[in-house]
User: Which sequence fits this backbone?
């Protein structure tokens, strides 16, 4: 089993001054997986990635890629890992081909120009090969970035916010490309994002990362099950007429009935949609819509993020004694 | 055991992939970048222009200079070509004292920060290269460009002189001229390193450029003014002093002035290019007594000039060491 773990993070911690950017992170990613690192801005995703590559020194703990310690031995790690930073930049007065050839040469690739051409065709930039990268759109730069990652034939690809600032079709194409690479070449891909839906489309597993801590990891179904244990099934009903709340609440398994805009939300332990509709019809309601809700990443993320936010607020209160007295003095005047 | 095996894997793959090492790949790219950049074309053109202008003036006046029997250096034709002027245009080495810093600053002021702000630095260090290769390559590439410029200019001058006058060049003259080339390279390298240091320190290219220009202005203009004010304020009236005291005060003033790199450079070039210069400080009558006004040998000139050269090298090294340290410790993020 140990061979399957291509990325292993053990107790990784990073302080910036007093700020704890990454807090005792444990994570392992298997070969051939697409792992999504999810979290809001400033959660420590980029810092974690930089530590994985040995570009930033961890304060404690270690990150191993293919069994190599990234902070002790960064060169072999960088040879195996292709990394695309969040705002990828190129030498603007060089053409796409020149940019790519340069990176290829730095990696010691032979017959580098042919290889660069192949890569540009693979990512769909064959028409812009001889154009200067200064004229490239963001989506094109992202593609060139991917070509540059691929030219060194990595075992692991790390993408930091790869879909940031591209239009929806661009995102779709890009994600399709990533998925294709994963399937065809068996590459392990770690991508960080705060765009939940995109991550949901491609990732086998996600980790939710807030305030330097990994709050949860697993595939989306597991996350949903863990989080909404109490009432995993929700049905939203839109109907005309007096809603028989008490009758519905008496039904087996129903936990909560809540009026939301445009309808009523019934949450419970079991899937009771047919029974519910039958009951409502028998009560003489005109049902105009019934919608079964499934939990997506959005709800999961929201839930985790909200919980964390509350914690943060309470933390600030306990630690902000000095500040409060300071501001208090000002407000009295 | 596993990590060791992986290490050897990396080692072998690096060995089997032929082609040049990443460092030289970077140097090649940097040299190409520098040579094609507008600022190098402009400053190189300016230096070329002053070179041709001052050489032309020297050519016109060479006959008079060589025929001047009061000058013990008159027979060093090629040194005369570099130093003669008719007063309308300063000789080439004075121009370099002025333009060299600008060249160094222009080649180095955005070395690191422009890469960082355009997001290429992160990509670069994510490749399998050591981090110091980046800054070393930047420095070496600029140094190659500067060396090529100065060496070819001076060889051009020697060749032109040989062609026009038909006078053979003395070995000692050749050594002196090469010494001058080396000195100019070191001098520009100092400013280059200072600019690289500022480019590591400041995030904006404009800030580091302005800072470098400010330091240059301070040393060329304001430092002398400050020293003069200091002398007027603190040193006693020279009329009331004995000769020994005047000499010791003069020593203090010279020492103060020699904190300026351009002063070191001009002292050193003067000594190298004018073989009859035997001291850079004041000489007493006792020391001068019995001295024949004749040119010094190359070795003796080099001895006179050595403190200046080592001062310049030391300043260059300090700047490079500082920028190296800062760059290695810095957080690379976009």
Assistant:
């Amino acid at each position: 089993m140990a061979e399957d773990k291509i990325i292993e993070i053990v107790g990784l911690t990073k302080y910036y001054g007093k700020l704890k950017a990454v807090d005792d992170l444990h994570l392992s990613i298997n070969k051939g997986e697409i792992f999504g690192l999810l979290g809001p801005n400033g959660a420590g995703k980029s810092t974690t990635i930089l530590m994985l590559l040995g570009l930033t020194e961890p304060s404690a703990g270690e990150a191993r890629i293919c069994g190599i310690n990234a902070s002790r031995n960064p060169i072999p790690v960088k040879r195996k890992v292709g990394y695309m930073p969040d705002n990828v930049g190129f030498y603007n007065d060089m053409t796409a081909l020149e940019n790519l050839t340069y990176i290829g040469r730095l990696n010691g690739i032979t017959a580098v120009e042919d290889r660069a051409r192949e890569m540009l065709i693979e990512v769909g930039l064959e028409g812009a090969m001889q154009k200067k990268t200064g004229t490239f759109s963001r989506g094109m730069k992202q593609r060139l970035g991917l070509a540059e990652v691929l030219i060194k034939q990595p075992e692991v690809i790390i993408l930091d916010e790869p879909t940031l600032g591209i239009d929806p079709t661009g995102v779709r194409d890009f994600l399709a490309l990533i998925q294709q690479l994963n399937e065809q070449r068996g590459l392990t891909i770690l991508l960080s994002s705060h765009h939940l839906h995109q991550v949901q489309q491609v990732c086998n597993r996600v980790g939710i990362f807030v305030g330097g801590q990994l709050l949860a990891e697993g595939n989306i179904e597991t996350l949903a099950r863990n989080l909404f244990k109490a009432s995993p099934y929700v049905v939203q009903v839109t109907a005309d007429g007096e809603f028989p709340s008490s009758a519905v609440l008496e039904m087996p398994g129903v936990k909560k009935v809540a009026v939301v805009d445009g309808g009523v939300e019934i949450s419970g332990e079991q899937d009771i949609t047919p029974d519910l509709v039958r009951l409502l019809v028998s009560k003489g309601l005109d049902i105009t819509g019934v919608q079964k809700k499934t939990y997506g990443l959005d709800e999961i993320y929201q839930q985790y993020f909200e919980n964390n936010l509350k914690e943060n607020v309470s933390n600030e209160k306990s630690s902000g004694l000095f500040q409060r007295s300071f501001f208090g003095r000002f407000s009295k005047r | 055991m596993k990590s060791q095996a992986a290490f050897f894997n990396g080692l072998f793959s690096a060995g089997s992939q032929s082609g040049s090492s990443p460092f030289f790949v970077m140097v090649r790219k940097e040299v190409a970048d520098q040579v094609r950049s507008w600022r190098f074309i402009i400053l190189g053109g300016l230096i070329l222009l002053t070179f041709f202008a001052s050489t032309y003036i020297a050519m016109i006046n060479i006959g008079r200079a060589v025929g001047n029997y009061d000058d013990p250096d008159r027979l060093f034709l090629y040194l005369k070509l570099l130093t003669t002027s008719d007063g309308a245009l300063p000789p080439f080495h004075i121009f370099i004292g002025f333009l060299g810093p600008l060249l160094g600053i222009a080649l180095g002021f955005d070395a690191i920060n422009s890469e960082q702000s355009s997001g290429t630095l992160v990509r670069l260090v994510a490749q399998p290269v050591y981090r110091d290769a980046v800054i070393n390559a930047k420095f070496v590439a600029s140094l190659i460009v500067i060396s090529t410029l100065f060496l070819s200019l001076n060889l051009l001058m020697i060749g032109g002189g040989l062609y026009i006058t038909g006078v053979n060049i003395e070995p000692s003259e050749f050594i002196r001229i090469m010494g001058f080339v080396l000195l100019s390279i070191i001098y520009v390298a100092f400013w280059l390193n200072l600019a690289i240091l500022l480019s590591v320190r400041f995030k904006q290219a404009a800030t580091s450029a302005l800072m470098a220009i400010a330091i240059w202005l301070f040393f060329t203009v304001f430092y002398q003014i400050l020293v003069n004010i200091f002398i007027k304020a603190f040193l006693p009236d020279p009329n009331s002093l004995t000769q020994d005291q005047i000499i010791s005060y003069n020593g203090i003033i010279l020492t103060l002035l020699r904190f300026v790199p351009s002063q070191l450079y001009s002292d050193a070039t003067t000594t190298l290019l004018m073989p009859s210069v035997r001291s850079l400080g004041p000489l007493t009558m006792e020391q001068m007594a019995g001295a024949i006004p004749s040119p010094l040998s190359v070795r003796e000139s080099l001895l006179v000039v050595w403190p200046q050269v080592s001062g310049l090298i030391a300043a260059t090294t300090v700047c490079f060491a500082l920028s190296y340290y800062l760059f290695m410790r810095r957080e690379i993020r976009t």
Summary: Residues 2-328 of chain B form one domain. Chain B has 14 helices and no strands. Chain B touches chain A through 35 residues (CB under 8 Å). Residues 1-18 of chain B have pLDDT under 50 and may be disordered.
